[in-house]
Amino acid sequence: MNEAILLDIDGPVAVITLNTPATRNALATQAQYAAIENACATISADRRIRAAIVTGAGSAFCAGGDIKQMLERIDDPKLEAVDDRYHYKEGIHRIPLALYQLEVPTIAAVNGPAIGAGLDLACMCDIRVAATQARFAESFVKLGIIPGDGGAFLLQRIVGPSKAAEMTFTGEAIDAQEALACGLVSAVVPQAELMAHAMQLAHRIAANAPHALRMAKRLIREAQHARLESVLELSAAFQAIAHNTRDHAERITEAVGRLRFAAA
To answer: Once rounded to an integer, what is the mean pLDDT over residues 3-26?
Structure first.
């Protein structure tokens, strides 16, 4: 794994850490994109892993793109607009596709500022928990650009169209408490307790049947854009699989045993 991106696996929980605190974990290199993509592939392929956490090293979660690199591209006379198109398609777009398609539930442990692409990275996860000093900004317009890495798709599905429009059009930051109030995060905890809280949540998720977790996540993803009839059809197919897993047989046997014991 690239040193800029760390992958630690502890039993059923994996932790992906953005590890360039000197740049406030800015996302700027092909090596970073490939490392996150590879981490997601490793996690998906290991069926023992049931949950994953994404966090940042140091004081920031992710400062977004590298503005120095943006300036270098502006000053490069050889670059054409089409080059920037592929710069995104073959670069940072690998991250939302990898995280969004990751089979296991994901938790963003937002330890500090999540700015621009950093906010969008948090939105690529299923659940977000924040430290009290976390800040969130869809700040692209402040630099004269637009959300280029999926933010227009992701943010409004979490906070609703009106709040997403406000954040996108002003580019202004909100604090952790406002993020909690608008549903961007589900919990705010002191910095010192953040990773423990995220790990505890990950293990609560990991205590459940792995195949059911993966299929439940896929249903949530599909339900965001599919018709009810399509979601019901997929639900029936997944449920048929779930009913025939060893996990279901063991857990339903235990549940029936508890009922019999309680009735005795």
So the answer is: 96
